[in-house]
Structure formats: structure tokens, C-alpha cells
Amino acid sequence: MAQRLTSSSGSGRPARLNVSAPTPGPNSRARADRAFSRPGEAMRLLVTRPEPEAEETAARLRSLGHEVLVQPLLDIAFVEPPADAPKPVAIVVTSRNSIRALGRWPAAADWLDRPVFTTGAATAEAARAAGFADVRSGGSDVAALTKRILAELPVNRGQILYVAARDRAGRLAEDLGARGYHVRTVEAYRAMRVAHLDAATDAALRAGIIDGALFFSRRTAETFADLVNAAGLAAPAKRIVFYALSEAVAEPLRSFSGADIRLAPKPDADSLFVLIGSDG
Q1: CATH 3.40.50.10090 in the chain, residue ranges
Q2: Which of 57-61, 166-170, 230-234 is predicted least confidently?
Q3: Closest CA to 123 of 137, 133, 113
Q4: 0.90 cut: is pTM over it?
Q5: What is the CATH architecture of 26-73+194-277?
Q6: pLDDT tens digit string along 220-233?
Q7: Residue 70, CB-side half-sphere exposure with 13 Å CA sphere
Q8: What pLDDT is stored for residue 233 in this prediction?
Q9: Bridge partners (DSSP) listed for residue 77
Q10: Rounded mean pLDDT of 73-99?
Q11: Pairing between β-strand 182-193 and β-strand 74-78 as defined by DSSP bridges
């Protein structure tokens, strides 16, 4: 649900930090869905993302004629906002969950004029939907994002706020700090692994009725591999197609010797949908 927060900037107007799921850009989604929905055979697909992205992805797949089994492998838990939250010179976020976390911070309503550096189009869309006016997407990974910050944000201008997960990839804060930037990292949420596969997922794998599984993060792929092996389901898992956002995401799945692993041409959701569409 969107959160309306009152700004203390002196304008007298309420500032809105809207942390609802944003609607993806119509042009990019339409292009992806046209490619994805071309005539072909419907598939049974396993969606492994955390909520609410899992149901969003499942709804999109179902609308295109596919059967979907939803098995979130990570549960998102938000941490209480820090007691002290001075206005930063810039904000860095690397997932939509970082934007959702900011929606829980009362002070964030006064930060909508700050530049927000993001990874990926979906996170950038979420930041704009939340009300941030100056959103700068730094590419698909932390390394590319770091390069953009170095190129566009002068050093020694003040504190950069990095709204991060407890478990995160890359060394963004360390790399920026080594170049003279003052970065405050706040671990605003945790992505916790589920303890076991749902009964429906276990049964579907054993029955061999899943055609493919989608993986958007390395940690989700790691969790899938661990839980499948623990359940003694490695053999049937090898018979499904793994659709992964990138090689880094796919790497844990290579423990399934001989598995059919297919990588999106670009590390974004639309490209992954197009990849699936070429198989459907």
C-alpha cells in the first residue's frame, strides 16, 4: 500500500513515498510479451522469486497461457529504520526491496529531491514510483553502478546512503570508500531462505511435470540447489530447463551435471521472458 508522508521541507505540500509495486514500462513489456506469446506449446513453469515479485511474474506467465507453480525460496524481512537518519547527498539502492524499506522510514519523505542510483530498470521504476525525481540506473550489477556513481557524483560532497540487504553481492561501499566517498551502509532488510520445498513443488518435481524454472538471483538458485539436493530430487531436477538472468545467477545450478541452463541475453526480466518465449 502506498504511504503518504508529510514533508518538512517548508513547501507545505505532502511528500509521497509510494512503495507499491510499480507498473513496468508499457513499451518494454509489450515488446517482451509479443515475443514471449508467439504461437507455441504452453509450459509448466516454476517461479522461485520472493513475494510480491513471485505473484507478479506468475500472473504475467499465466496471462500468456502457461501453467505456473509459485515457490518463493526467500522470505523478505524488513529491519526497523535507524534512529538517526540525516539527509544524504545521494541514495544507493540495488533492489525493489530497498525502496520498500525506505517506505518504512519517516525521514525518507524529505529525501525525494536526492539523486537515487539504482541497478536495473525494475528498481529504477520502483524509485520513480515512490516519488524520487532524479533516478539514475547504473546498469545491471553493482560494478556498473559503482562506475556511474564515480562518474557523476563528486567526492566529498556529503554522506551517501546505501540501503542494502544483509546478504549482498559486490563491494560497493568499500570501493567507493577507497576513492574518498563517505558511504553509510544500512542493512534495511534480510532475505531469509525457506527451510524446505513446498509439498506441491516437491510432488511436481517427483512427478516430472515441471518444464522449466525461473531464477532471478544467485541466492535463489543456491537455495534451490540446496533444498533439491536435501530432498533427494537432483535427478528429476536435471530434466527441467533452468532459465537464469545471468551466468552469475546460474552458477549454483551447474552443480546439476548435464542440466539444461539457458541465460537471458541481457540481465533483465523482459529478456528472460523473451528467452522463455523462444522455447514455448
Answers
A1: 26-73+194-277, 76-192
A2: 166-170
A3: 137
A4: no
A5: 3-Layer(aba) Sandwich (3.40)
A6: 999 999 999 999 99
A7: 15
A8: 98
A9: 190
A10: 94
A11: antiparallel
